[in-house]
UniProtKB/TrEMBL annotation:
It comes from the Bacteria. SUPFAM superfamilies: YbaK/ProRS associated domain. This is Ala-tRNA(Pro) deacylase. One of its GO terms (molecular function) is aminoacyl-tRNA deacylase activity. Residues 32-141 form the YbaK/aminoacyl-tRNA synthetase-associated domain. InterPro entries: YbaK/aa-tRNA-synt-asso_dom_sf, YbaK/aa-tRNA-synth-assoc-dom. Transmembrane segments: none annotated. It comes from Ferrimonas sediminum.
């Protein structure tokens, strides 16, 4: 399929230089990172959310982390829930099912990103299919996200994540 038209048009229109990196077919941003031989923390994944009024929001976090939904809701003062993949895919008509680019701006979706992504020199994200990643420098990723909210709302998963200690 190649890079989604909305993604390439958005980046070109805003004069954001990018590279496309291929990898073996994968079903997740984490698998894409592994297949492409890229550090997992450099691959940004999109998590589609909605609030109780049905307003959509894209949270962008590193592929090796998990979204802390409650924490993000507190930061934004909104009750948020995960969107189903079917519902989320309707917002991305030029993307393959399940391959959402972490570039909500290209689809007029509000974005909030985790600040831990600012620690990476390069950022990669799904290009809209299951075999390509878009590569941006940290500087250009910052330009893309300059108008978007940010905070710390993801966590490194552990074996006992979410379990209480006695």
């Amino acid at each position: 399929m190649g890079i989604a038209i909305s993604v390439s048009e958005y980046l070109n229109h805003h004069h954001i230089p990018f590279r496309v990196v291929s990898h073996p077919y994968s079903e997740s941003a984490l698998q894409s990172a592994i297949g492409a031989g890229i550090p997992q923390q450099q691959v940004a994944k999109a998590v589609m959310l909605q609030d109780h009024q049905g307003r959509h929001l894209m949270a962008v976090i590193p592929a090796d982390r998990r979204l802390r939904l409650k924490r993000l809701g507190e930061l934004l003062d909104r009750d948020l829930s995960l969107m189903s993949e079917v519902e989320a895919s309707q917002t991305f008509p030029d993307c393959q099912f399940g391959a959402l680019p972490a570039l909500g701006q290209a689809y007029h979706v509000p974005v909030v990103f985790d600040e831990v992504l600012q620690d990476q020199q390069q950022i990669f994200f799904e290009a809209g299919d299951h075999q390509l990643l878009v590569q941006l420098s940290q500087r250009d990723f910052g330009r893309v996200m300059a108008e978007d909210r940010h905070g710390r709302f993801s966590v490194q998963p552990t074996l006992d994540y979410g379990q209480r200690r006695l």
